Amino acid sequence: MSEWTPDEVMTVNAARALARARTCFVGIGLPSTAANLARRTGRPDLVLIYESGALGAKPSRLPLSIGDGELAETADAVVSVPEMFNYWLQAGRIDVGFLGAAQLDRYANINTTVVDRGPGRPEGRLPGAGGAPEIAANCGEVLIVLRHSTRNFVDRLDFVTSVGHGTGRGDRERLGLRGGGPVAVITDLGVLRPDPETAELILTDLHEGVTVEQVRAATGWPLKTADDVRTTPPPTERELAALRALKAA
């Protein structure tokens, strides 16, 4: 039995993806866990920004929501939501946006709004957009973290909440989106990145003990792979201790 869980491997690798970031606009849930882990391991100077207006938040525990008082109490500054979006986000002042998803397609477009539950059943309502469409549009680059299954990785989204790479390379420029879009999707099986030519997600990294066949079986479209699929380094004792302490707080 391994010394870590698939969720821990996913979170550690998501935190590592912030190694070069200075500012990160953080979504609640898995992105928040990864971003706070990054501050406790490789990037203690990482500035965490939450859409409720908290700039430079340094929570001692994982926030329950963007309205958690812990964010305001530990922030360098708290600004209004209009200022957060108009001055900080839409002006392109944030390096990385870190998002989750309910559904993701091959071009890293995100659905967090509604899912089709089948004939004769009402639509399944999800949490909604929040600030995700603006984050996906305006941050310098976007990271996405979610668990890997055919329920989440779908051939066609039931609803497009946030644009990743649209229908392929060049769509973001055509739509006038400021940021570069998703650069990596980190899951509990591996890491997917957009192909430089087509912007379609391809498998570039596997976590230890996972096979390409497993990832393809958990993906709702014919997943392509990089010429050289790497294996991610396992979590270190320091990373695991910091993650477990953070979740226990």
Offer a few descriptive terms.
249 residues; 8 helices; 27% helix; ten-stranded mixed sheet; globular; single chain; alpha/beta
Layout: helices, strands, pairs:
Layout: H1 6-16, E1 23-26, H2 30-40, E2 47-50, E3 54-55, H3 69-74, E4 77-78, H4 81-89, E5 96-99, E6 103-104, E7 110-111, E8 114-115, E9 124-125, H5 132-138, E10 141-145, H6 171-175, E11 182-186, E12 190-194, E13 201-206, H7 212-217, E14 224-231, H8 237-248
Parallel strand pairs: 1-2, 1-5, 5-10, 10-11, 13-14
Antiparallel strand pairs: 2-3, 3-4, 6-7, 8-9, 11-12, 12-13
Helix pairs in contact: 1-2, 2-8
Describe this structure in words.
Strand 10, helix 6 and strand 11 form a beta-alpha-beta unit. The radius of gyration is 17 Å and the shape is globular. The two termini are 26 Å apart. The chain has helices at 6-16, 30-40, 69-74, 81-89, 132-138, 171-175, 212-217, 237-248; strands at 23-26, 47-50, 54-55, 77-78, 96-99, 103-104, 110-111, 114-115, 124-125, 141-145, 182-186, 190-194, 201-206, 224-231. It has eight helices and 14 strands. The chain has 249 residues and is of the alpha/beta class. Helix 1 (6-16) packs across helix 2 (30-40) and helix 2 crosses helix 8 (237-248). The model has no long low-confidence stretch (mean pLDDT 95). A ten-stranded mixed beta sheet has the order 4-3-2-1-5-10-11-12-13-14, sandwiched between helices.
